[in-house]
Write a structure and sequence with these properties.
single chain; 7 helices; seven-stranded antiparallel beta sheet; D-amino Acid Aminotransferase, Chain A, domain 1; about 300 residues
Length: about 300
């Protein structure tokens, strides 16, 4: 498998199976109709061993995604948290990305997913910065997508459903085909929404801002983390809508997400952002790096240590 090194175990429907045995049938219902919800979490190395960052919040969002889709997972918050920690421990790694997925499984076809059994799986693998190793300091080139971000009147955007990511994939492919690293998606009112798999923040005149939930975004846990950092560090912050041209003329711009971390956007549609200096972003990146790696007492509350 390209880019993904096989580890030892994957949790499937309540038990740990060998990596190569974690398979499903080609007639799996969720594969055909996108009836699946998932979650992405990261585990980082700390002086006290591997620790999962904001594990309860991620599992809670997973359960809420399932609830929105009338999916009964059959596992409690605590059971899923323990299963995530077990997967990391069993694979004996210190840093990884953890993926939970729940989907309608094999046995029934047709559009009513409630006839199918729901399967739940948890896997982890080593995954570097999603937008590349230089994305944190050198930054990435982004473009405004011609694909409008899905609207919550059609698809519940607060549910991390696999189906939502068809919209993301269209935007990502278009960006890459145009020679960019990542897309920026606007909502159906033409205002800033988010990246295909990240939230977006901008800085103008030393004020940090990000679109409100009502702009049609996934309420990211990294986004929430950054908002708390801004409050704690005395950085002026607002949730507000932004127009396309406000992006072009911002002083600093960055993506934020579990997979991407905090990734600077150095260019949008060929316009350089600001003067290339990112002082507020750099401060937030430092706070984030310290928090995830257990170097900050204040944010240790966000770490769930994995006992080996
Ligand atoms: N928006 C979308 C569409 C995403 O897929 C993600 C990644 N889960 C985010 C934002 C960022 O969310 P988080 O910080 O919780 O990973």
């Amino acid at each position: 498998m390209k880019d993904m090194r096989a580890l030892s175990k994957i949790w499937m429907d309540g038990r740990l199976v060998n990596w190569d045995d974690a398979k499903i049938h080609v007639l799996t219902h969720g594969l055909h109709y996108g009836y699946a919800v998932f979650e992405g979490i990261r585990c980082f190395d700390t002086p006290k061993g591997p620790a999962v960052f904001r594990l309860p919040e991620h599992v809670e969002r997973f359960l809420n995604s399932a609830k929105i889709y009338r999916m009964d997972l059959g596992y409690s918050q605590k059971e899923l948290e323990k299963a995530c920690a077990d997967v990391v421990a069993q694979n004996g790694i210190r840093e990884c990305y953890i993926r939970l997925i729940a989907f309608s499984s094999y046995g029934e076809m047709g559009l009513n997913p409630l006839k199918s059994k729901i399967s739940v799986a948890i896997a982890c693998w080593e995954w570097g910065a999603y937008l590349g190793k230089d994305s944190a300091d050198k930054g990435v080139k982004a473009t405004i997508s011609s694909w409008v971000r899905i609207d919550s009147r059609s698809m519940p955007i607060q549910a991390k459903s696999a189906a939502n990511y068809a919209n993301s994939a269209l935007a990502k492919m278009e960006a890459v085909a145009g020679g960019y690293d990542e897309a920026i998606m606007l909502n159906s009112s033409g205002m800033l929404a988010e990246g295909p798999g990240e939230n977006i923040f901008k800085v103008k005149d030393s004020i940090l801002s990000t679109p409100p939930a009502s702009s049609g975004i996934l309420r990211g846990i990294t986004r929430d983390t950054i908002i708390q950092f801004a409050n704690d560090a005395g950085i002026r912050f607002f949730r507000n809508d932004a127009t396309r041209e406000e992006l072009y003329t911002s002083d600093e711009l960055f993506f934020a997400g579990t997979a991407a971390g905090i990734a600077r956007i150095r260019e949008v549609d060929g316009r350089q952002i600001g003067n290339g200096k990112y002082p507020i972003t750099a401060k937030l990146q430092k706070m984030y790096d310290d928090a995830i790696h257990g170097r900050s007492k204040r944010y240790e509350k966000w770490l769930s240590y994995v006992s080996r």
